[in-house]
Amino acid sequence: MSSTASTTDLSPLQPSLALRISLWVAQTLLFALFCFAGVTKVFTPIKELAQMMPWTGEYSVAFVRTIGLIDLAGGLGILLPSLTRIMPRLTVLAAIGCATLQVFAFAFHISRGEAAVTPLNILLLALSLFVLWGRSSKAPVAPRG
């Protein structure tokens, strides 16, 4: 008998190494970008933050800090459950949340005439959707057993 799989072999296909690496890279980038944005919005004084992100000076401190916490939660959720293999399905939920956040951020910036910042929103949306697709169907991470 040949060591290669036959056409009648019904075992699930393993995701390619390139796909698995690409997903880890995307998750790591999302983690870094969302956590950086979150920490910045949570801990930077509003006057300084408004110089970097003008909209933050126009809304309540509570709103800005809440957005920062949401960014931070998304960043942690997109990577840590998969990395630790503790409830890795939470990565899929975090990807949905991050994608949704970027849709709203895109609309928010367009409504304010800040189209110049929307390419980052589009990139983050694309990476979030890639992780959602990959971790929900093509290369899910198995929980600790």
TrEMBL record:
Kindly indicate whether the keyword Membrane belongs to this entry: yes
Q: Where in the cell is it found?
A: Membrane
Q: Which keywords appear in this protein's UniProt record, sorted alphabetically? A: Membrane, Transmembrane, Transmembrane helix
Residue ranges spanning the membrane: these are 21-39, 59-80, 92-110, 116-134
> What topology in the membrane does the UniProt record assign?
Multi-pass membrane protein
| Name of a matching Pfam family | DoxX_2
Q: Which domain of life is it from?
A: Bacteria
Q: What is its main location?
A: membrane
Name of the protein described by the UniProt record: DoxX family protein
